[in-house]
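Lab manual, section 2.4: Encoding a predicted structure.

Procedure: take the sequence of the chain (116 residues), apply the prediction step described in section 2.3, and record the output as C-alpha coordinates. A sample record is shown.
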Amino acid sequence: MKRSLLAIAALLVASPAAAQLATGNLQIDGRTGDTVTIRQPDEGFERKVDKTEARYTFRRIPVGFYSVEVTHADGSVMKPLKIQVSIGTTARVPTSVTETQADPTPAADATDDNDK
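Recorded output:
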Protein backbone atom coordinates (compact mmCIF):
# COMPACT_ATOMS: atom_id res chain seq x y z
CA MET A 1 0.00 0.00 0.00
CA LYS A 2 2.83 2.37 0.87
CA ARG A 3 4.41 1.81 -2.56
CA SER A 4 1.12 2.55 -4.31
CA LEU A 5 0.75 5.87 -2.51
CA LEU A 6 4.34 6.82 -3.36
CA ALA A 7 3.78 5.94 -7.02
CA ILE A 8 0.61 8.02 -7.18
CA ALA A 9 2.34 10.96 -5.47
CA ALA A 10 5.24 10.74 -7.94
CA LEU A 11 2.83 10.84 -10.90
CA LEU A 12 1.01 13.87 -9.52
CA VAL A 13 4.28 15.75 -9.05
CA ALA A 14 5.66 14.78 -12.48
CA SER A 15 2.52 15.69 -14.48
CA PRO A 16 2.76 19.51 -14.21
CA ALA A 17 6.48 19.39 -15.05
CA ALA A 18 5.81 17.29 -18.15
CA ALA A 19 3.15 19.74 -19.32
CA GLN A 20 5.57 22.67 -18.99
CA LEU A 21 8.09 20.94 -21.26
CA ALA A 22 5.70 21.07 -24.24
CA THR A 23 6.22 24.81 -24.67
CA GLY A 24 8.72 27.11 -26.33
CA ASN A 25 9.25 30.81 -27.00
CA LEU A 26 8.95 33.04 -30.03
CA GLN A 27 10.88 36.32 -30.36
CA ILE A 28 10.23 38.82 -33.14
CA ASP A 29 12.45 41.84 -33.76
CA GLY A 30 10.42 44.51 -35.53
CA ARG A 31 9.93 48.25 -35.49
CA THR A 32 8.78 50.41 -32.62
CA GLY A 33 4.98 50.61 -32.75
CA ASP A 34 4.42 47.38 -34.70
CA THR A 35 1.44 45.15 -33.99
CA VAL A 36 2.43 41.49 -33.98
CA THR A 37 -0.10 38.66 -34.26
CA ILE A 38 0.80 34.98 -33.93
CA ARG A 39 -1.65 32.22 -34.81
CA GLN A 40 -1.69 28.47 -34.59
CA PRO A 41 -4.86 27.80 -36.60
CA ASP A 42 -4.98 24.04 -36.01
CA GLU A 43 -5.15 24.61 -32.26
CA GLY A 44 -7.23 27.80 -32.31
CA PHE A 45 -4.40 29.69 -30.60
CA GLU A 46 -3.93 33.42 -31.24
CA ARG A 47 -2.09 36.25 -29.49
CA LYS A 48 -1.81 39.88 -30.56
CA VAL A 49 0.62 42.38 -29.08
CA ASP A 50 1.33 46.02 -29.81
CA LYS A 51 4.03 47.75 -27.83
CA THR A 52 6.28 50.74 -27.99
CA GLU A 53 9.37 48.53 -28.04
CA ALA A 54 10.74 46.84 -31.14
CA ARG A 55 11.22 43.37 -29.60
CA TYR A 56 8.20 41.13 -29.11
CA THR A 57 8.56 37.94 -27.06
CA PHE A 58 5.88 35.32 -26.61
CA ARG A 59 6.88 33.02 -23.74
CA ARG A 60 5.76 29.49 -22.92
CA ILE A 61 3.53 29.01 -25.95
CA PRO A 62 2.52 25.55 -27.20
CA VAL A 63 4.96 23.92 -29.62
CA GLY A 64 4.06 23.76 -33.30
CA PHE A 65 3.89 25.93 -36.38
CA TYR A 66 2.75 29.55 -36.13
CA SER A 67 1.73 32.15 -38.65
CA VAL A 68 3.45 35.43 -37.73
CA GLU A 69 1.92 38.66 -39.03
CA VAL A 70 3.37 42.13 -38.45
CA THR A 71 1.51 45.37 -39.13
CA HIS A 72 3.90 48.31 -38.99
CA ALA A 73 2.96 51.67 -37.47
CA ASP A 74 3.01 53.24 -40.95
CA GLY A 75 0.25 50.83 -42.06
CA SER A 76 2.40 48.51 -44.17
CA VAL A 77 1.82 44.82 -43.57
CA MET A 78 4.49 42.12 -43.54
CA LYS A 79 3.72 38.99 -45.53
CA PRO A 80 2.81 36.22 -43.03
CA LEU A 81 5.67 33.93 -42.07
CA LYS A 82 5.44 30.30 -40.97
CA ILE A 83 7.66 29.70 -37.92
CA GLN A 84 8.17 26.51 -35.92
CA VAL A 85 8.37 26.67 -32.13
CA SER A 86 10.12 23.67 -30.58
CA ILE A 87 10.17 22.36 -27.02
CA GLY A 88 12.35 24.42 -24.67
CA THR A 89 13.77 26.70 -27.37
CA THR A 90 13.27 30.24 -28.64
CA ALA A 91 12.45 30.66 -32.33
CA ARG A 92 13.64 34.05 -33.58
CA VAL A 93 12.49 36.32 -36.39
CA PRO A 94 15.22 38.98 -36.90
CA THR A 95 14.64 42.58 -37.94
CA SER A 96 16.10 41.85 -41.37
CA VAL A 97 13.16 39.52 -42.07
CA THR A 98 10.44 41.84 -40.76
CA GLU A 99 11.90 44.71 -42.82
CA THR A 100 12.34 42.85 -46.12
CA GLN A 101 9.01 41.02 -45.97
CA ALA A 102 6.97 44.21 -45.64
CA ASP A 103 4.40 44.86 -48.34
CA PRO A 104 4.83 48.50 -49.41
CA THR A 105 1.05 48.88 -49.72
CA PRO A 106 -0.55 50.19 -46.52
CA ALA A 107 -3.32 48.14 -44.99
CA ALA A 108 -6.80 49.03 -46.22
CA ASP A 109 -8.55 51.67 -44.14
CA ALA A 110 -12.18 52.60 -43.68
CA THR A 111 -12.07 55.77 -45.79
CA ASP A 112 -13.95 55.90 -49.07
CA ASP A 113 -13.03 58.21 -51.96
CA ASN A 114 -16.75 58.86 -52.51
CA ASP A 115 -16.96 60.60 -49.11
CA LYS A 116 -14.91 63.54 -50.36
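Check your result against the sample. The first strand starts at residue 23 and ends at 29.
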